[in-house]
Amino acid sequence: MSTPQPPSPLDRFEAIGDGLDNVRRRPGFGWLLAGVWLFFLNKPFENILKHDNMAERVLGLAAVVLFVIAYMGFFWYARARNMARVRAPLGVQIGFVVVLLGLGALMLPAAGESALTTLVFVEAMGMMILPLRFGVALGVGLLALAELVLRTVPGWKDDGSYSLAIVLGGLAVFAMRRAMLRSVELAVARKEFAELAVQEERGRFARDLHDILGHSLTVITVKAELAGRLIEGHPERAAAEVADVERLARAALADVRAAVAGYRELSLAGELVSARSALQAAEIKAELPTVTDEVPEANRELFAWVVREGVTNVVRHSGAKRCTIKLAAQQVEVLDDGSGPAPGGGVSGHGLVGLRERADEAGASLQIGTAPGGGFRLAVRVGS
């Protein structure tokens, strides 16, 4: 039975991409929710069918059909605009409201008082598409209109049902509109978080490749230079160095492949062995610990990165003759007797910046400064 492997960086990139795709809008059923409420046009529809005047009946039926089509069409348009966070011109929005009011008015001769039901749909549409202050103003105006005609038209009675329906309809659509906007904002936030995760993963992957190749290529360069100096006077030693170069190149290739596979971890003991080899090739005296038992398992990978980056800098930049590595349970130090830190100190270079990030992630502190007696000191301490 095979052991499941952790996801590689490429797998993580693909998963994050899937997350971005999921943020894209999916078709919803808001239109169905809006269409259900058209059931309440049944009363004016029934009254129109019972009306005696044929011309007014035909006009009323045509107005009902056009009202349903216009209402659903305007709703679909407004919803698409809201989801795209692009508002239609105010003139177009007001035009929608005027069209619905006009169609409702055409129902009055045949439907009578029941045609006031259309005011609820007009207020719902206004609250959906208009700016909030205009939607509220429209609701107040429609409420006043309903109260006025119910009190002044002979035979019409005011039982409060139309006014209550206008108020409740406006509030319901306002709540739905706010929920839609919040949903869009949440989708945008998820998209931004997913994009940030992609950027962080790319940065982590680039940092790993820099640290891996920076150290390996530095050692390969030093050994190749040493082999070049030895090739005439000491061909056997030169051949051994060339063999080491080949071995290191293969190891670097394996490290890169492991990093791409996403499950590469450093060994503190292995890094100390590599450090000794690199320092000897650069003709730098190495004073290194021979055991790592006192370092807790949780700290070993971070300390291994410190050893790798510290020794790479010693070989590449310091001009040192001696390098010392000190290990403790909570701290690792890399010291040399070279040229010391650059003027002003601080963290510079991709390797040290990456090491700072690793230390921060582990809750450790990175220290850079002058070693006792001169030279450069790099230290990482875990905890206080």
UniProtKB/TrEMBL annotation:
Residues annotated as domain Signal transduction histidine kinase subgroup 3 dimerisation and phosphoacceptor: 201-265
CDD domains tied to this protein: HATPase_UhpB-NarQ-NarX-like
Keyword Transmembrane included in the entry's annotation: yes
Keywords noted in UniProt: Kinase, Membrane, Transferase, Transmembrane, Transmembrane helix, Two-component regulatory system
Membrane spanning stretches: 57-78, 90-111, 132-150, 162-181
InterPro entries: HATPase_C_sf, Sensor_HK_TwoCompSys, Sig_transdc_His_kin_sub3_dim/P
GO molecular function: kinase activity
PANTHER family xrefs: NITRATE/NITRITE SENSOR PROTEIN NARX-RELATED, SENSOR HISTIDINE KINASE DESK
Record-given protein name: Sensor histidine kinase
Lineage of producing organism: Bacteria, Bacillati, Actinomycetota, Actinomycetes, Propionibacteriales
